[in-house]
Amino acid sequence: MKFAVTGSTGMIGSAVREWLRQRGHQVNRLVRPQSSSHEPQDIPWDFEKKTIALDRLEGHDVVAHFAGANIADRRWTPRYKKLIYDSRVEGTRFLAESVTKLRRPPKLFLSASAVGYYGDHPERTPIDEAGDVGKGFLAEVCRDWELAAKSAQQHGIRVVPMRFGMVLDTRGGALAKMLPVFQWGLGGPIGSGKQMISWIALWEIPQIVYYLSQQDKVNGPVNVVAQQAVTNQTFAKTLGHILSRPAVLPFPKAAVSLVFGEMGRELLLNGATVVPQRLQELGYKFAYPDLKSALTSILK
């Protein structure tokens, strides 16, 4: 198959690109003009300047869109929140509208999203893809992000927003930032520790991308999370156990708010019990069904 991928230097995009290429698929990157690395088949695009090499985008089976500013890179100042929003919403809108202009458009437009769509649900009621949009900045971004992708759907292209949970890998994301603290024996639950973490191992994602590309009738959002969400406290305990380190030092709620501000409150203190209902209905078999097996594989 022939895939076009944005965000190909990021954690998710690079994993998807590597996995697909290893299995013989053609994967071409959509890259910004200022990119430091280039490949012969790269597809230049720039959503801010509204430019894209449409001729090079012709004939791809799947466009997989993973580009966007890092939500946990720094405190959410008004300026950085605008960057997060625009890089996702405006970038997705431009790309979705662009693929509709192709003579040979893709059959599938995969667009990143996140379980932040659902907001905070401390009551732990399982939430599937039919769950309502929540409150807060992340929910607002995810809602508009997904709406921006829908313009492609109006032209007969299947659009599947992938609502990612916490992506686990040692090379980036939350786990990479936690590891040094836990390895020093200073890790522990954050806030009350009762907030739910819906997670997914990084190397599960490329398999899900390919699986969805094979499902001719799938449309609409898909929760890309493992089957067993866990509390923050359980996550800390499991990680500490695998590392053979204590994981009992709490990070108080007030400290989270002081150090990280709004970003910390939404990313670290909120949570929801998100379930992969659509993947289960489609018959997808998870490589990592539980947190212990996932972390053991990732860390060892």
Structural notes for this entry:
It contains ten helices and twelve strands. 38% of the residues lie in helices and 16% in strands. An eight-stranded mixed sheet has the order 4-3-2-1-5-6-7-11, sandwiched between helices. Strands 8-10 form a two-stranded parallel ribbon. The longest helix is centred in the N-terminal third of the chain and has 22 residues, at 78-99. The mean pLDDT is 95. The protein has helices at residues 11-22, 54-57, 78-99, 137-149, 173-183, 205-213, 232-243, 253-269, 277-282, 291-299; strands at residues 2-5, 26-31, 43-46, 51-52, 62-65, 108-114, 158-164, 166-168, 196-197, 199-201, 222-224, 230-231. The protein is an alpha/beta fold and 300 residues long. β3 and β4 form a beta hairpin. The chain is globular.
How would you sum up this structure in a few lines?
With 300 residues, the protein is of the alpha/beta class. It contains ten helices and twelve strands. Helix 1 crosses helix 6, helix 3 (78-99) runs parallel beside helix 4 and helix 7 (232-243) packs across helix 10.
Layout of strands and helices, then pairs:
Blueprint: E1 2-5, H1 11-22, E2 26-31, E3 43-46, E4 51-52, H2 54-57, E5 62-65, H3 78-99, E6 108-114, H4 137-149, E7 158-164, E8 166-168, H5 173-183, E9 196-197, E10 199-201, H6 205-213, E11 222-224, E12 230-231, H7 232-243, H8 253-269, H9 277-282, H10 291-299
